[in-house]
Structure prediction request, 461 residues.
Amino acid sequence: MKLRTYSKKNKATRDSSPVEVLTPNLESSYEDLIQDLPQVVFKIDLDGNWLFINQSWSQLSGFDVDQCIGTSYMDYIHPQDRSRCKATFTKIQHGDIEHCTEAFRFLISNGNYLWAEIHASTALSHDGQIIGIVGTINNISDRVSEEELLLANQRTLTALLNDLPGMVYRCRNNPDWTMEYVSGSSYQLTGYHPEDIVNSKRLSYGSMIHPDDSQEVWDEVQNAIRENRRFEKVYRIFDVNNKEKYVWERGKAIFSSNNEWLGLEGFIIDITRQSNSDRKRQKHTLYDEITGLPTPPLFLDRIRTVLKRLADTECTPLLILVHLDRLLKALDQLDSDSIDCVEREVAQRLESLLDPLDSITHLENQDWGLLFENQITRLSISELAQQIQDLFLIPITVGKSKMYVTTSIGIVVCDDPHQNAEELIRDASQATNRAQALGGGRYELFDSRINYQSISQHLTG
Prediction:
């Protein structure tokens, strides 16, 4: 490898004359140094043929240096990278660029390939003309493998996030909840693609939140930030089709290592189906599945509500417990579906007497509770009891069977706001038991001065 010389001015004469800087021995030592470099040092001509390659090439590629000299560098570039490599080297050869740093795949002697980084620049003649390209080649396979592994992990993580039944996000802490990142699963949740939501290009996430819930969401997040804790919230959003959905969100504030505020990040999932199931489950605990009537606990709560209003109203509520005489024995002969039909029929007959503010429940053993908020102003107690008895003059028909029943009725006047709902049920039950004991088909008004004999216990919850 021929090393170049340069001119040096003589300080005394100010004349310039070429001075040979490197002696042959020094030149030889520099060539030895180049051969010993761990990087591949190369030079190619304008036709793309190797003019010089140090011995590190053999260690890198497995090819013999002497066999490669005079051959084209393109023979050793991976076919998929050749057009890109040639385009880059052509720019250097034409003087469009002076140097470059690029990564290409090189073929090696065992048939595999490795990633290498090339630092290349123009090779000039004594008169400054471009005569080829010189540079170095470094093996970066380990680094590329790590980068490829990182990219693969990122692709896996992205795919995982996109497959989650909810939306992963990072956003700013403002009323619009301006999104800086959302996962691809935002489409399943909201009907909007990430590019529609990020940086509010189309609309803000805040605008999707139900107006009745937006302030509660804001307050909860701000409290969590001040208290340096995670926040969790269930609220409603409207999707792209204006369909209401229930979502559960969990998130936290994020800070940099120097405690600089960065924003919020978290996860939002669709719980609409679960929420609907919970509401249905709650409804079943409040309303009987067969008759649709309030359950005993809800009926008791309504009695308490009526009692609380006594001080502010002039109404006189009545609590009535109706027992259907001899019906239990008849039901023993029926299957479960027929029994359900009987209960629905009884419920419909009794409900026909109620006003919108009145209430009814099915207790047990064919005992039914009725709460009339102010029936006493419309009918006398005896008239009301007669109406209930008249409801069952017509037999209950199930298939070909007809069941004739009478009613034993116990009545309590609710005129004291300090009365207890459970005690009122007990008093009505005692009055009903007395009506049964006296032969049934009649009513009894509870009077605390009468010593009632309790015949049965009625479960109220």
Remarks:
- The first strand starts at residue 6 and ends at 9.
- Residues 164-275 form a domain with the Beta-Lactamase fold (CATH 3.30.450.20).
- The two ends are 103 Å apart (CA to CA).
